[in-house]
Write a structure and sequence with these properties.
253 residues, mainly alpha, 0% strand, globular
């Protein structure tokens, strides 16, 4: 297939629509966009349509670009993502991008689900039985991958904060979200790398989570593929920043 044929094929698979032509006020721009993302990038690397759409949904949630998120929520369903997988991908953005942006994405998600006849609420994926479990269960996930790095790094904080800040990270980021079912740990870490890249200015965290993603079973090729795929949505500079931040751990594997 040539580039035009690849673009048409991918547009049909994901959106059940034809690739852009010369119609409309910005047909030329849409041809550039679709040719790059759907004709080139989507055919480079090992990730399948389902995983690519989870990557895209994560990036668009992080950027809070809601019209495009709406389109890719539908594309995710068309590509075989389950509603639970999509919901968990969006939920787990909250500790990184904040609750308001995540709530906006959830609202759009639920609209798309309702339009597709998906019954809400979806089955609960919570596994914690009490608040007291949040720290213990979170630490069980965090420690083997990241150790005590955060606790040691912020021991200089004044008063209660030296203990509270690392604990909040463990309880919220790992306890509240990573203990949920619906996405496996390998996928969660890969999507976390993508959302940190999309944030920009988080190079230290990008490197740390690339190392974590490798430890839980992602390959260097899968991580690079996810970041390059995200590049069309987050911009080339942020893609390169993330690749540069992860160069050392990625080239060791």
């Amino acid at each position: 297939m040539d580039r035009k044929e690849r673009t048409e094929q991918k547009m049909q698979q994901l959106f059940h629509s034809h690739a852009a032509g010369d119609e409309g006020s910005d047909g030329g721009f849409m041809q550039i966009l679709q040719g790059y993302i759907f004709g080139d990038v989507c055919y480079t690397g090992s990730l399948d349509n389902r995983m690519r759409e989870l990557v895209t949904i994560t990036a668009l949630t992080t950027l809070s670009t809601l019209p495009q998120l709406r389109a890719h929520l539908q594309a995710g369903l068309n590509a075989g993502c389950t509603p639970v997988e999509i919901r968990e991908a969006i939920y787990q953005c909250a500790p990184f991008i904040g609750f308001p942006k995540t709530l906006n994405a959830i609202a759009v998600m639920n609209e798309v689900f309702s339009e597709n006849g998906i019954s809400l609420p979806l089955p609960d994926q919570k596994t914690l039985s009490s608040d007291e479990e949040r720290y213990r269960r979170g630490l069980e996930i965090q420690a083997p991958v990241y150790g005590d790095e955060i606790k040691e790094r912020y021991s200089w904080l004044p008063g209660d904060f030296a203990e509270a800040v690392p604990r909040f990270l463990t309880e919220l980021g790992f306890g509240d979200f990573c203990t949920r079912t619906g996405l496996d740990g390998k996928t969660r870490e890969l999507l976390t790398v993508v959302l940190l890249a999309a944030l920009g200015g988080a190079d230290m965290q990008v490197r740390s989570h690339i190392e974590g993603a490798l430890r839980v079973g992602n390959t260097a090729e899968e991580i690079v593929c996810a970041l390059v795929h995200a590049g069309g949505y987050i911009g080339i500079p942020r893609m390169f920043n993330a690749l540069n931040a992860g160069r050392e751990p990625l080239t060791k594997n």
